[in-house]
From TrEMBL:
Belongs to the ABC transporter superfamily. This is ABC transporter. SMART domains: AAA. It comes from Gordonia spumicola. GO terms for molecular function: ATP binding; ATP hydrolysis activity. The keyword Transport applies. Coiled coil: none annotated.
Amino acid sequence: MIEVKNLSKRYGDFVAVDDVSFTCKPGRVTGFLGPNGAGKSTTMRIITGLTPAGTGTATINGVAYRDIPNPATRVGVLLDASAQHAGRTGAEILRLTAMTIGAPQSRVDEALDMVSLTAEEAGRRVRNYSLGMRQRLGIANALLGDPQVLILDEPANGLDPAGIHWMRTLLRQYADRGGAVLLSSHLLHEIEIIADDLIVIGHGRIVAQGTKEELLAGTGAVVRSADDQRLGQALYTAGIPFHERQDGGFTVEQTPDVVGVVARDAGVALVELRGGDGARLEEMFLQLTQQTQREQPTFQGVQR
Ligand SMILES: Nc1ncnc2c1ncn2[C@@H]1O[C@H](COP(=O)(O)OP(=O)(O)OP(=O)(O)O)[C@@H](O)[C@H]1O
């Protein structure tokens, strides 16, 4: 189990991580979601002892990472898949890690198998690997010591949709055997596919956390009409809170049937009316992303 308590980190006047607390439980895949620069990597670097915390604590099974003897046998870490030695082959990198952490060499083939890298691919130099292959190699490296906890920074970067599904299966099986996984992503859709629990971070602060079902459930509605101005007026008059959506229409804090009645009474024809599954999370994430980017946000599966 990973426990982060009241973690903060400043760089000069800039607060990169601001009073962050969460736990990652065994048997669960926890997604750490936030736009670029939100503070995900900094938090993960603090958990893995690479960056000192300003205030607060981060422990793995009750112990700070730096105090764990032979940590790779307890915690598998992948923070930067591109940081692997480009001149070595994948197999060489794994053999070296196995030697360093005292894992049997037979574990190299097992790890390659787990990430579906073939013997031929493992024999190639890493400089010739695609980003997706580097991610697989990095995960194999993290799994070598048979750890109970995995910490992966943007592991789905460079994976195609089939690769993302493959990763979900791998991490699901790992969690089902009792492992705890913390993985970060700046893509809502990606994390929706892979994670059981979600922690959403923006500007260094946690803005939402809970199970995926809790966060995606939402009781609201998404509505689009032929006359949004009139519909907005009718919702306002009925005292129902709503927010304009980036892509037109509204996210409404009421059930679709109530919204339907308001629209009917106002004589507004609806183009779309559905339950707000994840709508609030999606909106919140869009806003966070927009605040941290100068250009229009574009990320797959959300922007239409
Ligand atoms: N060593 C450092 N010195 C100064 N600022 C830093 C340092 N490391 C990180 N930051 C800043 O802290 C903020 C959080 O960065 P971090 O890398 O944790 O974000 P992130 O959520 O992982 O983003 P990304 O998805 O882009 O990797 C950023 O604004 C970054 O510029």
